[in-house]
Amino acid sequence: MIKFLKCIVLTLIAVILLIQIWIFTSLFWWRTHPVETTMFMRTYYYTTTEPHLYHEWRDYNQINDHFKHAVVAAEDGRFLQHHGFDWDGMLNAAQRNTQKGEVVAGGSTISQQLAKNLFLFNQRSYIRKAQEAVATFMMERMWSKQRILEVYMNSVELGDGIYGVEAASRRYFGKSAKNLSKDQAIKLAAMLPNPKYYQKHPEDSRYKFRQRFIQKYIRYSHIPANE
């Protein structure tokens, strides 16, 4: 029995180590290569009856600055100040959720969201959050802030089967992400974190509120300069 338990423990340790090696090598490769698929994309493809996946990679300087500012204003106002984890933001989110008695705010940074999109499933658990933290820690030390934002903008879900700002720009506005207007960029950024719902309910009051919020704070958001 003891031997059996030891075998199970060693197997689990080996699996955990292999996962960390996979994440590390993936991050190392993606430092200089486009991210063509993510775990979220694969999950969508294999769990949808008739999947139609839209995704086009664009380099950082091929994406309009309006969208960069809008995303930072919407999702992570302290993006350039933290190292992957915004402790003040998480504390504020926890306090708001406690006051409301439900989840009304999230404290995840762009880096944490990207780590989840790249490697994990969209299921809440302590194990997933722990792995997300490890992947975020690795990413923040291997990639520049520009690279993190670049990959995030190219992989984030922005509708049913729509991944990345380029695919979203063409699907919704018939133009490249480089040519987005400020209002169009705000509309796309406001779809986060519930893009499938807002895609079908463009007049939703919460969606309109998010647009007004981004419009108000976009001028205060700071983004990485072109390297």
UniProtKB/TrEMBL annotation:
Major place of residence: membrane
Enzyme Commission number, as recorded: 2.4.99.28
Domain Glycosyl transferase family residue range list: 52-213
PANTHER family linked to this entry: BIOSYNTHETIC PEPTIDOGLYCAN TRANSGLYCOSYLASE, MONOFUNCTIONAL BIOSYNTHETIC PEPTIDOGLYCAN TRANSGLYCOSYLASE
Membrane topology of the entry: Single-pass membrane protein
Keyword Metal-binding: no
GO BP: cell wall organization; peptidoglycan biosynthetic process; regulation of cell shape
InterPro entries: Glyco_trans_51, Lysozyme-like_dom_sf, PBP_transglycosylase, Pep_trsgly
Catalytic EC class: transferase
TM ranges: 7-30
Biological function: Peptidoglycan polymerase that catalyzes glycan chain elongation from lipid-linked precursors.
Localization terms from the record: Cell inner membrane
A GO MF label: pentosyltransferase activity
Family the UniProt entry places it in: Belongs to the glycosyltransferase 51 family.
Gene3D superfamilies to which the protein is assigned, alphabetical: Biosynthetic peptidoglycan transglycosylase-like (1.10.3810.10)
Gene source species: Acinetobacter qingfengensis
SUPFAM superfamilies recorded: Lysozyme-like (SSF53955)
GO CC, alphabetical: peptidoglycan-based cell wall; plasma membrane
Keyword Membrane listed: yes
Pathway: Cell wall biogenesis; peptidoglycan biosynthesis
Protein name: Biosynthetic peptidoglycan transglycosylase
Keyword annotations of the record: Cell inner membrane, Cell membrane, Cell shape, Cell wall biogenesis/degradation, Glycosyltransferase, Membrane, Peptidoglycan synthesis, Transferase, Transmembrane, Transmembrane helix
Organism domain of life: Bacteria
Catalysis performed (reactions): [GlcNAc-(1->4)-Mur2Ac(oyl-L-Ala-gamma-D-Glu-L-Lys-D-Ala-D-Ala)](n)-di-trans,octa-cis-undecaprenyl diphosphate + beta-D-GlcNAc-(1->4)-Mur2Ac(oyl-L-Ala-gamma-D-Glu-L-Lys-D-Ala-D-Ala)-di-trans,octa-cis-undecaprenyl diphosphate = [GlcNAc-(1->4)-Mur2Ac(oyl-L-Ala-gamma-D-Glu-L-Lys-D-Ala-D-Ala)](n+1)-di-trans,octa-cis-undecaprenyl diphosphate + di-trans,octa-cis-undecaprenyl diphosphate + H(+)
